[in-house]
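Running low. Invent one:
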Amino acid sequence: MTERPIALVTGGAQGIGHACAEALANDGFRIILADINASVGDAAKTLGQDASGFVCDMGDPGQVSDMFDRIAADHGPVSALVNNAGISEPGDFLNYDIATFQKVIDVNLTGAFAALQRAARMMIDAGIEGAIVNMSSINAQVAIPAIPAYCASKGGVMQLTKAAALALAPHNVRVNAVGPGSIDTAMMAAVNSSPDAMKMIMSRTPLKRVGTPSEIADVVAFLISGKASYITGETIYVDGGRLGMNYVC
């Protein structure tokens, strides 16, 4: 019996990350979850007996390196990576703390690079024609002043995706990104509880609803699959039409 390929999903204990893991498990991958949340082990148990969970702060390069060492020793090379871990840390622009800005960059951009690089090395060393999907955001293209570090990090993820795709194309490792719009996750909890905030979200969303984590996961699973075998370096925005608007109604 052929051993199933391994997919690593960071930020996989909940929300979009866990939905991505479920979709990839359904596609035949053995799942490894990474998350700063200690519940990651319990989240992994929902994905099959051979799924695993690692507690890892993706903003700490040492922890990321240690995790990949353990994955290599205990499980073998990954065939797919979903770089999903991320934080937003909103605040007033003029009073935004530099340490907070750096914290967001460390997790969303530096952590994504560290995981991408290690996963790519694994794939190349094992002769795997793998696939990597980074989680960007519509805020790579459109900004919100209260989340300057998040916007900067997701713009960086978009460019990191392009650079990595070019670097890894000779090795047949594809790198793409997904840019969610307004998705029904814990990050949107405050919006969901505020009619005024939800009205604003709907005013800039042509489909007039928020998206679901599974709708992001379906696009991630497509980009990982052989159906996307000639796609690399792209960011696909899953935003209900928001980026196409030049007005709110």
About this structure: The chain has a mean pLDDT of 95.
